[in-house]
Amino acid sequence: MPTYDYICGACSHTWELFQSIKASPVRKCPECGKLKAKRQIGTGAGVIFKGSGFYQTDYRSDSYKKGAEAAKKSESSSSSDSSTKSESKSSSTASSKSSD
Q1: d(Cα 86, Cα 100) in Å, to the nearest integer?
Q2: Are 31 and 11 in contact (CB under 8 A)?
Q3: How far is residue 77's CA from residue 9's CA, in Å, rounded to a whole number?
């Protein structure tokens, strides 16, 4: 249920009211009692996360998590293979240049 901001057109009193989305707007001002209250357009309520930390991937499905882990493993193995290949190429190139 959202919190709505109200302002009275007669006395300019402002207040917040926690009510259902389906509920009709309040018309009576709690301060002066006149029927001049209007619901204000607000930014809405922010989401409050409590705890040590939240991440974008916290609520992913199990199949997504397994696929992401497999992708990380294949990336790490391919990057280590390519670095080994580049090291062997550079050493063979250096040895062929030194023999000339």
Answers
A1: 22
A2: yes
A3: 68
- Encode pLDDT of 25-67 as tens digits: 999 999 999 999 999 887 666 666 676 666 666 667 778 778 8
Question: How far apart are alpha carbons 34 and 6 in whole angstroms?
Answer: 13
Against a cut of 0.70, is the pTM above it? no
Which stretches of the chain are DSSP H helices?
Answer: 62-99
Domain extents in the chain = 3-39
Placement of tokens 């009692």 in the chain: 33
- 18 pairs with which residues across the strands? 3
Amino acid, single-letter form, for residue 45: A
Alpha-carbon distance of 75 to 87, in angstroms, equals 18
pLDDT in tens, 2-23: 888 999 999 999 999 888 889 9
Tell me the residue type at 10: A
Contacts for 100 with CB less than 8 Å, ≥ 6 apart: none
